[in-house]
């Protein structure tokens, strides 16, 4: 996501395409400096202001103060390989089912997603996309359990890549420079337009049942049938690996037992009518209701969703009481307040 900044990414967790190998961004945060509501500049790490350090690793941006500096643990830049595989929509149920089983046992070096897409005039499509920390040969071998018996893909792309090139590809900026891969107006060379979209997220702790797979496919089919002018669909992003080796209470990021995250989203253009926007938002809401029986009640705090009624529990789960305590200690007057900010008291 080329418009995402390092600060918000870190404070809300920081899910990324090498996370199964190296953990979340917040897992690699070793210290930070924060200006608190009373004007103090505090350095926070495991041995100093440890409670604020804990809360800043997944407790969400803007809740406790103004973060002015981050210190990260580093990893040697790895050898990477990328893949994208597309199948016809007729294979979507089998592809999603196979992907869920495959990602549950995949090596930590392999991150992937499964996308069910409605692409307007281009119709419906199922895709798996991924990044492998290792060689092209090792990735090719790791892909075989996914590919076996699924039929011939409509397209298949597998290549080695440097780290920077891989990140530009994942950001949709393969043919752009780093400077160009910024929002127009956000930097001197930025070329990317702003986009408008509606989205919500959830987590799966285990593979969808056959009924859940059918519900997912029907939701995307409904988007294509009723609103072909909108692009969108469902994306299942693999968790596991190093992300899930961290205890849920070791950092403020509680989502440590997940198989994958599910994003439901659809987008529209700057000239689209209010009725089109209403249709897009309506589809996301309807899809959330459709998928609710098959997913957990959790949601990723960095995918802020203003429609979530029980957002605090969904974002923070069992870590919410401790986060409220930290909020009350460092911002008792709730200076850093917004629509979904952590409160200074738990609701009765």
Describe it for me?
The structure is a single chain. A hairpin with a 5-residue loop joins strand 1 (29-35) and strand 2 (41-44). By secondary structure, the chain is of the alpha+beta class. It contains 10 helices and 10 strands. Helix 4 (92-105) crosses helix 7 (210-226). Helices cover 29% and strands 23% of the residues. It has a 7-stranded antiparallel β-sheet. Strands 2-1-3 form a 3-stranded antiparallel β-sheet. The protein has helices spanning 6-11, 19-22, 50-55, 92-105, 136-147, 163-170, 210-226, 274-291, 311-316, 320-330, and strands at residues 29-35, 41-44, 66-72, 80-87, 110-119, 124-133, 155-161, 196-204, 231-238, 260-268. The longest helix has 18 residues, at 274-291.
Short account of what is shown:
It is built from ten helices and ten strands. The chain has 348 residues and is an alpha+beta fold.
Radius of gyration over alpha carbons? 21 Å
| C-alpha geometry | globular
Taking the sheet with the most strands, its summary is: 7 strands, antiparallel
| Secondary structure tally, helices | 10
The average pLDDT score comes to 96
Give the SSE string: HHEEHEEHEEHEHEHEEHHH
Give the spatial strand order of the biggest sheet.
7-4-6-5-9-10-8
Uncertain runs are: none
Supply the helix-strand structural class: alpha+beta
What is the number of strand segments? 10
C-alpha termini separation = 38 Å
| Proportion of strand residues | 15-25%
Helix content: 25-40%
């Amino acid at each position: 996501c080329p418009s995402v900044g390092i600060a918000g990414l870190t404070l809300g967790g920081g899910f990324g395409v090498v996370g199964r190998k190296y953990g979340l961004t917040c897992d690699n945060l070793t210290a930070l400096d924060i200006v608190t509501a009373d004007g103090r500049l505090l350095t926070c790490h495991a041995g100093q202001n440890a409670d604020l350090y804990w809360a800043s690793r997944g407790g969400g941006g803007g809740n406790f103060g103004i973060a002015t500096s981050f210190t990260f643990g580093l990893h040697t830049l790895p050898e990477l390989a990328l893949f994208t595989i597309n199948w016809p929509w007729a294979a979507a149920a089998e592809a999603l089912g196979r992907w869920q089983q495959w990602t549950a046992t995949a090596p930590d070096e392999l991150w992937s997603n499964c996308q069910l897409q409605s692409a307007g005039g281009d119709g419906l499509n199922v895709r798996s996309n991924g990044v492998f920390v290792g060689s092209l040969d090792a990735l090719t071998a790791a892909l075989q359990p996914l590919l076996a018996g699924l039929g011939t893909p409509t397209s298949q792309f597998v290549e080695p890549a440097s780290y920077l090139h891989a990140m530009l590809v994942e950001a949709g900026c393969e043919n752009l420079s780093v400077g160009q891969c910024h929002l127009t107006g956000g930097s001197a060379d930025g070329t990317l337009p702003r986009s408008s979209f509606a989205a919500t997220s959830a987590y799966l702790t285990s593979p969808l049942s056959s009924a859940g797979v059918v519900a997912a496919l029907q939701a995307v089919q409904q988007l294509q049938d009723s609103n072909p002018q909108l692009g969108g669909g469902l994306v299942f992003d693999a968790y596991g690996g190093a992300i899930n080796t961290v205890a849920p209470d070791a950092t403020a990021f509680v989502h440590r037992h997940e198989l994958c995250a599910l994003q439901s989203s659809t987008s529209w253009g700057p000239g689209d009518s209010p009725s089109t926007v209403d249709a897009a938002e309506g589809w996301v809401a309807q899809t959330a209701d459709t998928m609710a029986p098959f997913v957990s009640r959790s949601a990723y705090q960095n995918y802020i969703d203003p429609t979530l009624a029980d957002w605090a529990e969904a974002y923070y789960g069992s870590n919410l009481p401790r986060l409220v305590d930290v909020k009350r200690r460092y911002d008792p007057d709730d200076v850093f307040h917004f629509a979904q900010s952590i409160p200074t008291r738990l609701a009765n």
